Description:
Elements: E1 2-13, E2 17-28, E3 32-36, H1 43-50, E4 58-63, E5 66-67, H2 73-76, E6 79-82, H3 94-104, H4 109-122, H5 138-150, E7 156-160, H6 168-181, E8 187-192, H7 195-201, E9 204-209, E10 212-218, H8 219-227, E11 230-236, H9 239-244, E12 255-260, E13 263-268, H10 274-288, E14 291-296, H11 301-336, H12 338-344
Parallel strand pairs: 3-8, 3-9, 6-7, 7-8
Antiparallel strand pairs: 1-2, 1-4, 4-5, 9-10, 11-13, 11-14, 12-13
Amino acid sequence: MHIVQTTELTKIYDNRYIALNALNLEVDKGMVFGLVGPNGAGKSTMFRILLGLQQPTAGTVSVFSESVSPERSDIRRRIGYLPTNPSFPKHMTPITYLEFIGSILGISKQQSKIQLARLLQAVDLVNYASQQINGFSTGMMTRLGIAAALMGDPELLILDEPTLGLDPAGRKQTIELIHELSGHDRTIIIATHILSDVERVCSDVGIISQGRLIYSGPMVEMRRLARQGSISIEIEGNLTTFEQQIHTLDEIGAVRYERTGTEFRITFLGTEPLSEYVQRLMTLVDRTGVDMLYITTGDGEIEEAFLGRLEDDRTRGFLRAAAWAAEQDVGNETAEDPNTVLTEL
């Protein structure tokens, strides 16, 4: 079942700025979907449209298989939303604020008390429950925002840059919380530009660039694409002999490498499984008598795959623009060349 589905979703502001460009997205029930893209890629705009806070310029969007519009408050009650850098009334406490959210959602006072107590425990704010929000750190504000988003026990949870501005400890705690929230038929969409967060918690990933979705698929597939044919190894000993024989790792020489000190990053361009290349590399280590200190087939590769997708998209954009310009030139020449007109007649 598609919890979220967009078809050719387009948003243009003031006929000048294209925020979303014919975006097609499907998020199924139970997914933890990471929407990855640089700032200004269109992530927040898409969320506002999903919530019915903005109308698309063109295309369609559905949530829970229902059309979204500003009037559909019934759909919004089934969604929990954490905006980027959430802010709250400074004079309130976490308890009074979550009570307020519960009243908006139509939750009874008794049930609201039960829910907020459970959530403040989950986001580690019990010790600050009666303190004024004024003076809370960025991490505390984020955790309170997650608690607020969960007050209605939503079927769909949307988190827009939930780790933005957090220190490493705060990021780790937030990611662990999101991991705990996944499952139980809840669908989660996380927008971020921090790729390591996506890799740690998401089941599926979409890459958005300039309002277009340029990749969407399971996280395991993204890892496979990212790590295909690439091995990093650090060695000590006779590095020169090892380096001179790297070309023997592939029978047709389809291999390239980069060296940084004692570390070699080797990329295989052939079609053999990566496990086969690892085995050959181990044989080369034994043959040349070097000592292996470290080996990996994936460290940091997700980020490179993401950047590669963005670069490919930019290249295709240039090619599309060039093709369009060429078509216009041909059209103008055809219209203006009298010989062409006489030939056609």
